User: Fold this.
Amino acid sequence: SCSYFNKKPTMPKSSKKAARSSSGGVVPAKPYSTESRKEETKKTYTQSSNLIAPNTSIGQHFLKNPAVVNSIIQKSAVKPTDVVLEIGPGTGNMTVPLLQKSKKVIALEYDPRMVREVLKRVQNTPEELKLQVIQGDAIQTKWPFFDLCVANIPYQISSAIVFKLLSHRPMFRCAVLMVQEEFALRLSARPGEALYCRLSVNTQLLAKVDQLLKVGKNNFRPPPKVESRVVRIELKNPPPPVNFVEWDGMIRLLFNRKNKTLRSVLITKATLKLLEE
Assistant:
């Protein structure tokens, strides 16, 4: 079965503390956890330089290669009228060029150090008024309206982010995401391939997935343990007329027993009882 899914996907609940700002600035939202908060306070600046030390406990790996940043932005096809949601802006390496090409960027960032850093990057520039920063957990926070999502997301929350994108309304034009290479290949895997799993089925039911770019480990600081890829996800509009909760329940059941025939899976007492309910 697909190891990325251990829990039934649900529409994330918005944080009661989440708020929206119409004129930029920082809007607080619910953080990941108390333990992560404690961890982040320990990681400030590196002793050898003025570079901020990434907090790898929450999946921070800063994209440092400008050529890769430019390629992602080019493939995102940002329009001057676009409101862009950037999940995990980090130090702002991708935020600044996104601001230069769009109407507005809403940056959703958990780490308060990164919030300060990205605000500092645009201070006293024409882009300052086009940036709104929401500090909080990308999974728990209610997302505002956006046309385009661009994100270098922590790999441990990739599946949760993808499911939240698939269920987000109103619909957006597309999402361009940096994810772990194996996860990216699972998104577009076809029936019969080794990586074909529940993630593949559900994503392809609701969206079209394109593989855009391979990104090597050395383009990040610090280098992650795995290779990365950039993918584009476009929601199918209109969406298929399927009750997704029921559909996903069936797919989860089938992929939990991948080596069994459909008949042997569906005629078990537990399955029959579930179908009756």
About this structure: Residues 3-23, 30-49 have pLDDT under 50 and may be disordered.
